[in-house]
Amino acid sequence: MRSDLKRHINYLKAKGAMYADVRWYPYEETNTIYLYNGNLKALNSSRQSGLGVRVLYKGAWGFSASSDLSNLGGVFDQALDNARIAAERVTFPIRLAEKDALTATFTSPNRIDPFCVPLDEKVAWLKQMDKQLNGKGVTNRLVWMDFTRKQIIYIDSEGSEIEKNIIEAFPGMQVMGVDNDGIMQSRKYLPPRLGDTRGYETMDTELFSTQAERLVRELNELLVAPPCPKDRRSVILLPGIMYLQTHETIGHPLELDRILGYELSFAGGSFVRLEDFGKLRYGSPKLTARANAIEPNTPGSYGYDDDGVPAQNNLLIDKGILVGAITGRQMVEEANAKAHSQIFKGSSGANRATAFYRVPIERMTNINIDPGTDGTLEDIVGQTEKGVILDGDKSWSIGSNREQFHFATDIGWEVEDGKVKGVVKNATYKGPTLEFYNALSAVGDERTWQMCYVDNCGKGAPNQIMQLGHGVPVCRFDNVIVGE
Amino acid sequence: MANRVIKLLQKLREYGLKKKLDLIISYHEEDSRLMRFANSAISLNTNEQLINLDIQVWDGRKRASYSMIVDPADLNAMKKGIDTAAEMVRHAEPLSYEPTFPDFKEDVIDQRSFNRGLSRLSNAERLAYFNKVAKGLESEDLKLAGIFSNGITITAQINTHSPYVQYFSSTDANVTAVISSESLKWEVIALQSAQKKTDLKPALLNRELKLLVRYYQKAKPVRLPLGKYKVVFGPAATGDVVNLLGRWVGTGEAMKRGYSFLTPDMIGTQVLSPQFSLQDNPNRPETYGLSHDQTGLKREPFPIFTEGVFKQFSWAQDEADEYGEKATGHEVPHYSLEIAAGTMSCPDLKALIAMPRDEDILYIPYIHYMNLVNPGKGLLTGSSRFGALLLKKNGRVQVPYNVRLTQSFYDFFGERVEWMSQERVVHDTSSSYGKRNPEAVLVPRFLCVKDIEISHSNTSY
To answer: What is the C-alpha to C-alpha distance for residues B31 and B279, in angstroms, rounded to an integer?
Structure first.
């Protein structure tokens, strides 16, 4: 098969293609199991196989994908035809940043392949957790595990040939109950990434049991809690919401394709402009953010991106100043040309596709906030006069250029004079992005830092869902509008 | 096409019968094409031809499923998929309720939403369409962006309890055209949904974009003071809110799981404006209506609100089984929602701008990134985007920066509704995150609501 693919790539080159690559997925498998109120609502597996061909012709992309491998030539021809028509409307001929030709293999670290664990064992594990969630005050409970295993063969016309073998696990659990106003409240647990691997061994029974108890306890506190006050105060974001804040207001605005207008008709643009790199004060000096795709244990680490560029660890925001973006080969060339300066020194290796039938685009890797020096959560609370601790993503809505946001959280704890007063419900907070990050007044140390995962990041046309990570500490922001 | 699919499904059914399985097979085939524009160029031109099989095996109250993207020539792989699902069900746990196995009483071939002309649309025709949309609009500063997404979708179902097959096919196109200013960072939008080739009218989009661009280039932008406004929503804004209401909040599942402000005791009572009627109408091909659901239930027009009175929750089969309710034919990949036409004649943006008014009106064509803040209270939030206008009572038109609305369904469709257009348009609400699933709502061209609260006002478009 690989030699056939190389032959077809050579054929495209002979037909005038400037560049071509193919991603062949011999297999991509999933296994999803969930219990809802004790009922095994889903016991699903899936398998898919196919290939996607990307062709650059006269400065324009064409792409074609198929699950029908009996007609390889047809898929390559169609990709070239698609590029030919695209070449009729070119305003900035696409160029690709330099990279090394690589022959390489990446295997995600794992000790236990979840696809080798018997279904009976998985179902029994979920039932055990469900039993623990079935406590006082709980009206609905949900516990799930979701696994993927895939092999990707990447070959391009520049001589690269890369094989990736990736396994991921996405478990979680949630409880819901009706509060004294008749409104449903909920708490959920998406486990942070612990250890250096990402196989079935991450399904830590003891850890989940402890967390199940906590969820039920916190839900019961929510059911009788007063609403969150409506005013301006400090918000102390725990990793369970800080990860999403980072995702929506640092990750997405720093995707270079968004900055260059490639998402304008769908997900939106970015308030960041090319002239902002190296100058814009994005946040207070306590804010350092990076795109780190070489952490071992998260889905934002993948070895090589779908341009064939090695994954990297790059600064995005350095002590509050914007210094980097999430980039692929095409966008860095275009950005540098438009800015008439070399803002970006090559691709950051973040061009990824969600499946063989989608084209790679700039995607977040692990967009992390560096731990700070302000101690533990208790230390930060102790130095907070009037605030609210927030955790759990309930809803999120962000401006089209990511310039403002509105989040609702599952739970809050009111803080007064350095002490936690009690739980509040229906908490929301909102604000303008830059004002918010410039009001960052405390960043917890490594003891508060957690690597969280996202398994449903949507972007692109046609749409793509991507998996990634966010390593974040506890952070405090001052003078924020909060409310019910 | 139908024969090829039906023959394949019958072969797989025979295999299931031979293995004595309670087997359900759902077939999905798509030929998807997407031409994406950015910075006035075609930034991507794609096509995907994919065939999905969802295989379910039941054993009494136990169920397991196996999904595959298949090579259509590889029948053995599909049979292996059935074997895998059959093996998996041995490890399943029985449900606490009795699930209803699909019951097909006849063969169903529903191709009302298929249009030969649209199915054969070429690359060259799509480019020509977009060139017409953009005619006279692009410049050094003004750039074209957008998508032309079109495709053919075939779905079919068979099972081992009955010999019949259900087969559905449709064609769809979803066009988004955006003109943006590189220097000022504004964007204006025009949208079109097409189920047949003759629905494609690039001149309409060109006219609307030209009108918006004229205001956006000339008018000085304003940051709106916080407070209450009379707002006219465009079809995208109305369509997205009503889709959330009908497709999710109005389901029995959402009610039972705490994601709805609607309760059983509201049935038969006045909940929203007497001007507001919403139904799921499977008889409309332009919203890709399906004659039967996946359990074989024949689908009929299904009122959700009639003149503001809440009529009923919709129930998919599995949730109906779980909660002891009667299924309503909603085991479907999409609804076909329509809001009844209003009484005001206001067919397009030009007419809206020209309409006499005794107070300022904020026109919001599109709500960006909408999400439910508090489902139990029906509270949702989102930001204005893509061509909002402030129509001053003195007849002048201003361009507002974006604003955030955090309002409930009562605020959108309740007693504050002033008027709705007689004219209705189809708004495409498809999501292409998964398999192609064309979905659209039929809504009044404009919805006018008073006292909509602006909770956050920005300093950028």
So the answer is: 30
The pLDDT tens digits of the residues spanning A135-154 come to 999 999 999 999 999 999 99
**Residue B403: partners with Cβ closer than 8 Å, 6 or more residues away:** B224, B362, B383, B384, B388, B454, B456, B457, B458
User: Residue A484 above 80 pLDDT?
Assistant: no
Note if the pTM is more than 0.90. Answer: yes
What is the count of residue pairs from A and B with beta carbons less than 8 Å apart?
A: 248
- C-alpha–C-alpha distance, residues B278 and A286, integer Å: 51
C-beta separation of B401 from B385 below 8 A: no
Gap between the Cα atoms of B220 and B209, Å rounded: 18
Confidence of residue B432 (pLDDT cuts 50, 70, 90): low
Residues in Cβ contact with A139 at an 8 Å cutoff, skipping those fewer than 6 apart: A176, A177, A178, A184, B258
Helix (H, G, I), strand (E, B) or coil at A259: helix
Q: Is B395 exposed, middle or buried (0-12, 13-18, 19+ CB in 10 A)?
A: exposed
Q: At A195, is the pLDDT very low, low, confident or very high (cuts 50, 70, 90)?
A: confident
Is the pLDDT at B443 greater than 80, yes or no? yes
- Closest alpha carbon within chain B to A60: B43
Closest chain A CA to residue B187: A264
* 3-state DSSP assignment of residue A274: helix
Quick one: average pLDDT of A49-69? 94
Answer whether residue A335 shows pLDDT above 90. yes
Q: Does A436 touch chain B (CB under 8 A)?
A: no
Chain B nearest CA to A79, separation (Å) = 7
Rg of chain B taking only CA atoms, in angstroms: 24
Contact criterion met (CB below 8 Å) for B209 and B146: no
Interface pTM, i.e. ipTM: 0.90
Q: Which of the four pLDDT bands, split at 50, 70 and 90, describes residue B207?
A: very high
Give residue B64's identity as a one-letter amino acid code: A
**Which of B224, B227, B223, B233 lies closest to B454 in space, CA to CA?**
B227
Residue ranges with strand state E in A102-181: 103-107, 140-156, 161-169, 172-178
pLDDT of B394 over the 80 cut: yes
Using an 8 Å CB-CB cutoff, list chain A residues near B142: none
**Helix/strand/coil (H/E/C) assignment for every residue in B101-154:** CCCCCCCEEEEEECCHHHHCCCHHHHHHHHHHHHCCCCCCCEEEEEEEEEEEEE
- d(CA B81, CA B65) in angstroms, rounded, equals 9
- Cross-chain residue pair A65–B49, CB shorter than 8 Å: yes
Distance from the Cα of A446 to chain B's closest Cα (Å) equals 32
| Residue burial B141-153, b: 16+ Cβ < 10 Å; e: rest | ebbbbbbbbbbbb
B63 touching chain A per CB within 8 A:
yes
Please identify among residues 92-151 of chain A the ones whose CB lies closer than 8 Å to any CB of chain B: 92, 118-120, 123, 127, 139-140
Q: B-contacting residues of A 214-233, CB under 8 Å?
A: none
- The answer to whether A89 contacts B127, with C-beta atoms less than 8 Å apart, is yes
- Cβ neighbours for B218, distance < 8 A, ≥ 6 positions apart: none
A269 touches chain B (CB under 8 A): yes
Q: Which of A303, A296, A346 is nearest to A103 (CA)?
A: A303
The whole-angstrom separation of Cα A61 and Cα B212 is: 31
Confidence band, pLDDT 50/70/90 cuts, at residue B460: confident
Q: Where are the beta strands (DSSP E) in A334-449?
A: 351-352, 361-362, 367-369, 386-398, 404-416, 419-424, 428-432, 440-443
The closest CB to that of A39, out of B96, B146, B149, belongs to B96
Measured CA to CA, the distance from residue B191 to residue B213 in angstroms comes to: 15
B456 → closest Cβ in A401, A430, A465: A430
What is the percent of chain A where pLDDT is above 70? 100
Kindly state whether A376 is in contact with chain B, defined as any CB-CB distance less than 8 angstroms.
no
Between A349-353, A479-483, B45-49, B340-344, the lowest mean confidence (pLDDT) is in: B45-49
